[in-house]
Amino acid sequence: MEKNPFSIYDFFGYLFPGMLTLLIIIHITFLKxxxxxxxxxxxxxxxxxxxxxxxxxxxKSTLILIVLSYICGHIIAYLSSTTIEYFAxxxxxxxxxxxxxxxxRTYSSYWKSFFAHDFNLGNLLWRVLVFITLCxxxxxxxxxxxxxxxxxxxxxxxxxxxxxxIQTKLFNLSQKLALxxxxxxSNADYHRIxxxxxxxxxxxxQKKTDNYIALYGFLRAICLIACLFTxxxxxxxxxxxxxxxxxxxxxxxxxxxxxxxxxxxxxxFVKFYRRFTLENYMALLTEKxxx
Length: 291
Hints:
The chain is mainly α. The protein contains 13 helices and no strands. It is 70% helix and 0% strand.
């Protein structure tokens, strides 16, 4: 039977985030001048845009909407991998590493791993841009993640017996595939080999693996969209400051809620990123063909 060319990732990783992005862009574009932060969340204003303001015939074409959403979704997926995933891997390291290594990290080590590791001017400029763009997350995770034990919880390793058992399996797999054994404490991306081996040789794990990939890809993209939307709200709030008028308490509350949502989405992404890696390790651990 011929395999369906579209996977669950095409819907969760590309189509849905792309469609959400298009809807948000159109909604913001047609907001009236002088709109408050509350108007960005107004369902009435949103429906008014699509019923009255958006008098474009092609919008009624479902096919064109799907194609545009799919294209936009690919752009968001790429940007989220170079921002959300990049940030997570820089400060926490890859899940394939911290699952197998028990480290006692300091507060400054998280800052250094993001800004000082592999330092050069190009990397520094990109990291500063990522830090500012993802400010709803970075302004919380870096300063407060360590004292609140969030970083420690995210990067907790497996117990010693499981770690040693997986390391043994990794060594045996390298022998089976006639590959040189990577150093135990090296940063070699050996998990990429494990991922492909498990997917090709343990069919029972394929569906679960596909689901984890789709979920962490979806959360990664939605997290970036939420951060960019929050950035717009923050800039709107700053630009509308007027000492002659009362403080917009509702607007501040909405921004704080969005910051909370951004961090929940980020932690959800990290959770499924970790589970995806752990699933591959545990599948290899229980696989009978690898001694």
